Amino acid sequence: MDKMRMMWKQRMGQRAVRCSALLSLLAVFLILSACGRQENEEETLIMRAENAKAVSGEAPALALVLASRDGAENEELIKSFRETAKEQGAELLVRLPDVSEEEAREARELAGSFVLCEVDPIEYQMLLLNELVAEEADVIVIHPNHSEALEPVLAAARAVGIRICAFGQEVGEESCDIYTTAGEAPQAAAGLLQAEE
User: Fold this and answer.
1) Which of 185, 182, 176 has the alpha carbon at shortest distance from 157?
2) What is the rounded distance in angstroms from the CA atom of residue 61 to the CA atom of residue 68?
3) Are the C-beta atoms of 98 and 121 separated by less than 8 Å?
4) Is the dihedral angle over the CA atoms 155, 61, 65, 117 positive or is it negative?
5) CA neighbor of 59 nearest in space, from 83, 82, 92, 84
6) Adjacency order of strands within the sheet including 163-167
7) Which of 2, 27, 135, 190 is packed most tightly, with the most Cβ within 10 A?
């Protein structure tokens, strides 16, 4: 009987060793396959990001920020910029602050100190500029409602590589790449877009 017990224990021991070896091999296989999947998933994610970047990078973004929602020249300017964007293969982003032409004119006439929270035409344009920076516009063309108040925001946009064209109200040299007239702004924007390439 002792012999039988010993043989049985030997068999059980051998089975335990085999099971242990099989479990170890299975664990190693699962770990290796998980690593391979993780690397493949990371490669897939990287490829997707690169493809998305390439697709979005095909068309540069040209942004137009006007002074008011009801400006007399708004319609004609937007039409000219649509044509320019189409010629340049760019996407046009038009932003109109929710202020009247009269409010925008009053803001442009402010001199000296001012409180931003009480000056909606200026604050609206600051918010719109920040949105366009976040959207990674390539070129921003703006009719500033106040040159001094907008200079820091425009300079910050330039600091991250956005080209700035101002018209209608001069801003400092550090705040824009080019200052021009409303009529020549579309051509100036086209030149800035070409410089981006």
Assistant:
1) 176
2) 21
3) no
4) negative
5) 92
6) 91-95, 61-65, 139-142, 163-167, 178-180
7) 190
pTM exceeds 0.90, yes or no: no
Distance from C-alpha of 156 to C-alpha of 135, rounded to nearest angstrom:
14
Q: Which residues of 64-82 are buried (b: 16+ CB within 10 A; e: fewer)?
A: bbbbbeebeebeebeebbe
CA 5 – CA 101 distance, rounded (Å):
102
Q: Where are the beta strands (DSSP E) in 19-150?
A: 61-65, 91-95, 139-142
**Residue whose token pair is 């080209």:** 163
User: How far, in Å, are 92, 125, 133, 175 from residue 98 at the CA level?
Assistant: 19, 9, 19, 23
Show pLDDT as tens, one digit a residue, over the chain (197 residues). 566 556 556 665 565 545 454 445 444 444 544 444 444 554 544 444 444 434 445 799 999 999 999 988 999 999 999 999 999 999 999 999 988 888 888 887 776 555 544 557 888 899 999 999 999 999 999 999 888 889 999 999 999 999 999 999 888 888 999 999 999 999 999 999 998 76
Rounded CA-CA distance 121/116 in Å is 9
